[in-house]
Design a protein that fits this description.
By secondary structure, this protein is of the alpha/beta class. The chain has 20 helices and 20 strands. The protein has 3 domains: 169 residues, 3-Layer(aba) Sandwich (Rossmann fold); 160 residues, TPP-binding domain (Rossmann fold); 197 residues, Thiamin diphosphate (ThDP)-binding fold, Pyr/PP domains (Rossmann fold, 3-Layer(aba) Sandwich).
Length: 550
Amino acid sequence: MTQTRTGGRILVDNLVAQGCDRIFTVPGESFLAVLDTLHDTPAIDLVVCRQEGGVAFMACADGTLTHRPGIAFVTRGPGATNASIGVHVAMQDSQPMILFIGDVDRGTRDREAFQEINFEAMFAPIAKWAARIDDARRIPEYVARAYATAMSGRPGPVVLALPEDMLLDAVEAIDRPRVEKVAQAPDPDAMAQLADLLATAERPLAIVGGAGWDGIAAQDVAAWADRTGVPVAAAFRRQDAIPNDCPAWAGNLGYGPNPKLVQRVKSADLLLIVGPRLGEATTDGYTLITPDHPGQRLVHVHPDATELGMTYRTDLAICASMAEFAEVLSPIDGPPAADGGAAHADWRDWSTPKPRDGVAMDLGPCVAAMRDQLPADSIICNGAGNYSGWWHRYWPYAAPGTQLAPTAGAMGYGVPAAVAAALRRPGQQVVALAGDGCFLMNGQELATAVAHGADMLVIVVDNGAYGTIRMHQEREFPGRISGTRLANPDFAALARAYGCWAETIERTEDFAPALMRARNVSGVRLLHIKTDVEVITNGTTLSAMRARRS
């Protein structure tokens, strides 16, 4: 005989059954029944945030680290619209998360009641599944399906609306058992074809990325690349797919890649794509690797069959999970002339910071100081902006889960992601990177970090501008600055107001000592780095850009 429970109790019980141990939220009156139930549920840590964008980013990052859906609860209307940015990031980043939205009661639906939105319609384009639970008896079914959907194939977000009166219904319901991700092994005939393609290739190149990488898959692929000499590059912001100390590691694609790597991609006769979708950023607007890629054979490995052949002509499509593919790949030989060692040497030269003359604050040596002082497995979290390019170029990523960075290019991601990482992996060094514009989109989550005892380092790179847009502006309309200047607060003073330790740094030589001082302090520490917008990227300046236009 089943026991009568409220919808709120059934929902929380089934989250616990699925292994949920943390929820990120901004509270709302439309899901008070859930909050009341969580009062008596010590198995779940409730992380109370300061804005729903931060909630969703934290849930997305948590899902990335655990490979199970990060869980977010927000209220209807403003709560849901604020959280939508995190849903979009989870979709484009292929990361599992579930967003629960407290909704209007069933009796007032379709009247444009207070803060009412049709959430199924709103989230359908940016979520794997969006639905509304109208019957409390079916909560276990919906929760189990949400977990399965978020984790299966190409992982992604699920959105479930919760009518507030449904959560108060007292009903009988049968709980569902824990859902596990179904492993997808590659087809043996396809692997035999891959072996033949590799044996006859002259200039093969592998590109790794996407979701689903774990330590075993990463080590298997790195060991295969080391043994065969096939160079391995990373898709945009997926540099942690395999350890960067792999002797065949060739670096990362995306914005500002190594020109030698770009040439290596162009000259490859066989491209082995393991995990990425080959999106716009990785392929430089579908030009570095064109959808038809004449003169190149393309093998695409992806866990979701619907992604295979979607954009690219595929010579061999393999539907498989990363771990299962990596295991079967291990014994396959590569061509005798693979040049992974040369590709790795090119990357090592490219990723070694070189001082720039006449620059008071040079971020390259700052990253070098971080490499010297911080553990190799530090988790680097960043949002969007030119500042991130220094770390993409110069920081070596050690293992899956050490790069939390949105391929969707969303600003404001770094600080919330770092909070989630610090809470999930308290024994690991966590670093949040943010530009001045990026930081003030979610800097309020420093309050969340302090309130929940997070131990993390925050680095704010302040050039007084929306730097990426300024760069594009100077390229298209040189000298005509419009809408990209920023008037900033004293970020160190702001951090201290939140209860953080903080320092401001304006000279390169002052960074390493300040970093050492920050390392000797626990809790949330913030380094405010003031830079000159003239040094717009790690490879050029605004003056050089204008000169090229003249």
